[in-house]
Amino acid sequence: MAKLRVLSTHLFMHQRLHPGLLELAAQSGAQAVELFAARQHFDYTSREQVAELAAFFRSNPLTAWSMHAPLYPDREMGRSGAPAVNLLHAEKSRRIEAMDEIKRALETAEQIPFRNLVVHLGERNDEWSPRSVENALTALEHLGAFARPLGVRPLVENLLSEPTTPEHLIEILETGHLDQIGVCLDLGHAHITVGVAAAIATLGPRIVQVHAHDNHGLKDEHLFPGDGTIDWPATGVALNALAEPPAVVLELSSKLPDESAALPGRIRKAFELLD
């Protein structure tokens, strides 16, 4: 079974998301998009922008497959001094603020019916502890209950922190019996940490989608697949061996040097690597 081809609008995160960019995604072979919820790009609090994008999806074959939950509440990705959206923060007030921000973004599913919400559990320096497990369970239970009536399934993503290793994500999900929560396997993050093959083996049937991008094993570069050192043929074989083929979400850096005219061809080739 062919994998769904999805382009993350992370590629355009320094531009306002508009129908022209969605048309470029469709021209690149994407069947759907993952909306990257950053206010300078997709302002989920703007009725006008939400309505504009909803109208596009109603009249075009391109669909909204997922949304990436906000990482910061401001328009400058934290550079204004705004704190990160952190569901594992030690301070309860910060955890409540983080949940409220994610729920603001999630409510757009009433007009733009996406199926999945990718969630980061904490930040890079968070540590694995009984408290982090408790905070993760509380957040995911609450988020799952809020998302369910909207027809949205939360997906936790493996990051570069202790609480979000593949093994710890599985422990959190199994401890809480969170069968309604899936996993977004980030291949670039896996390559830097435990390795792609090990991550796929650990997360297995929980994987609903993958964030596909490349790096050289040292930092999170978000390169086109093939421009780093991930073994893409082996990755494709491992993903194809799963009972349910995950959606492939290309999550490319917004700082890539490619000209707009070259993007559709490069994106098509990237999708083909994981067919």
Note down, in words, how this protein is organized.
With 275 residues, the chain is α/β, with parallel strands linked by helices. The protein has a single domain, classed as TIM Barrel (Alpha-Beta Barrel). The chain is built from nine helices and eight strands. The chain is globular. The model has no long low-confidence stretch (mean pLDDT 96).
Question: How do the strands and helices of this protein lay out in sequence?
Answer:
Layout: E1 5-8, H1 19-27, E2 32-36, H2 47-58, E3 63-68, H3 92-106, E4 116-119, H4 130-147, E5 153-157, H5 166-175, E6 182-186, H6 187-192, H7 196-203, E7 207-212, H8 232-240, E8 247-250, H9 263-273
Parallel strand pairs: 1-2, 1-8, 2-3, 3-4, 4-5, 5-6, 6-7, 7-8
Keywords:
single chain, 275 residues, alpha/beta, TIM Barrel, eight-stranded parallel barrel, 9 helices, 14% strand, globular
* β-sheet strand percentage: 5-15%
> Helical region count?
9
Intertermini distance: 9 Å
CATH topology assignment: TIM Barrel
User: What does the oligomeric state look like here?
Assistant: single chain
Shape: globular
Annotation, overall tally of beta strands? 8
What percent of the residues sit in helical stretches (DSSP H or I)?
A: 25-40%
Domain count:
1
Average pLDDT for all residues: 96
Overall CATH architecture: Alpha-Beta Barrel
Q: Would you identify the CATH H-level superfamily?
A: Divalent-metal-dependent TIM barrel enzymes
Low-confidence stretches: none
What is the CATH level 1 assignment?
Alpha Beta
The arrangement of helices and strands along the chain is: EHEHEHEHEHEHHEHEH
Structural category: alpha/beta
Radius of gyration, in angstroms, nearest whole number: 17 Å
Q: Identify the strand order in the major beta sheet.
A: 1-2-3-4-5-6-7-8
The largest sheet, given as strand count, sense and whether it forms a barrel, is:
8 strands, parallel, barrel
